[in-house]
Design brief:
It is a single chain. The chain is built from no helices and 14 strands. It is an all-beta fold and about 170 residues long. Strand 5 and strand 6 form a beta hairpin. It is globular, with a radius of gyration of 16 Å.
Length: about 170
């Protein structure tokens, strides 16, 4: 099992209806954005799709109607994240997981936020707060490249949120 710890010059951020607007307490995000480390929005021409948790088996895509999670819905292109694991030789993936943590200790749940996630093709959301509640990703057959398509939604419980998503393949 390899731990993937990836840092980019940009980050994915969750907001209310527009960039930099705070999510109302006890609400899920209405928009998902890419921003740089200085807090400047990077979604100029290509915007990240917003998948909002509506209940354990439904989502809203980019502010649309509540839709049932199903095989092919949402599509891979509509998912919040595409995680690619590449290797120099053909390998299988087994036991891959994704979870949110407090940014310090990966076993700790995030503070003041609930993170829901699903892998494309799943029919339910998983509350993936802390390592013990990780979303287990489907095993994949031998290949040199593996793609995982993930939907993510965030509920703000109290002001002052902070979390990091960790992925283990």
């Amino acid at each position: 099992m390899e731990l993937l710890w990836v840092r980019y010059q940009s980050q994915m951020s969750f907001y209310a209806s527009t960039f930099s607007n705070a999510i109302v307490v006890n609400s899920y995000q209405d928009s998902t954005h890419r921003e740089n480390s200085g807090g400047t929005e990077q979604c100029i021409s290509v915007h990240i799709h917003n998948l909002k948790y509506t209940d354990s088996t439904h989502y809203s895509l980019d502010g649309g109607a509540s839709t049932l999670l199903a095989s092919g819905s949402p599509t891979t292109a509509q998912c919040t994240l595409k995680v690619n694991f590449s290797h120099t030789s053909s390998v299988v993936t087994s036991g891959a997981k994704i979870w949110a943590f407090d940014g310090t200790t990966d076993t700790n749940a995030p503070i003041n936020v609930n993170v829901q996630a699903f892998q494309q093709g799943n029919t339910i959301w998983t509350n993936c707060n802390g390592r013990a509640a990780a979303l287990l990703l489907a095993d994949q057959a031998a290949n040199a490249s593996h793609d995982f398509f993930i939907g993510v939604s965030v509920l703000v419980v109290l002001c002052g949120i902070g979390f990091i998503l960790r992925i283990i393949v």
